[in-house]
Design a protein that fits this description.
Blueprint: E1 8-14, E2 19-24, H1 31-34, E3 37-41, E4 46-50
Antiparallel strand pairs: 1-2, 3-4
């Protein structure tokens, strides 16, 4: 069994290029600038996605 660390929750989509708005659970949001891939929890499986760009607000 694989274990995953939950970093946040997607709360909405933004724009037409696949961008999402994330409610972060991390203490320091700069962690998102250091990782290149994430796993998204689907209905039946985990989907691996590549992070192309991060904008912090």
């Amino acid at each position: 069994m694989k274990e995953y660390l939950e970093l946040g929750q997607i709360v909405s989509s933004k724009g037409l290029k696949g961008e999402v708005k994330l409610n972060s659970f991390a203490e320091d949001n700069s962690v998102f600038e250091k990782i290149s891939n994430v796993f998204l929890k689907g209905k039946k499986e985990m989907l691996e996605k590549q992070i192309e760009k991060v904008r912090l607000s």
